[in-house]
Amino acid sequence: MLALLGFGVTVVIRSADSADHLARVRPDELASRLDSLSIGGQRLQVEASGLQETRAALADDGRAQVELDRARQEADTLAVLAGTAPVAGPGLTLTVSDPRGKVDAWILVDALQELRDAGAEAIELSGVRVVASTYIIDAPGGGMTVDGATVAAPYVLRVIGEAHTLAQAMRIPGGVLDTVATRDGAQAEITNSDRIEIGALRTVPSPRFARPAD
Question: HSE on the CB side for 148, CA within 13 Å?
Answer without folding.
Answer: 2
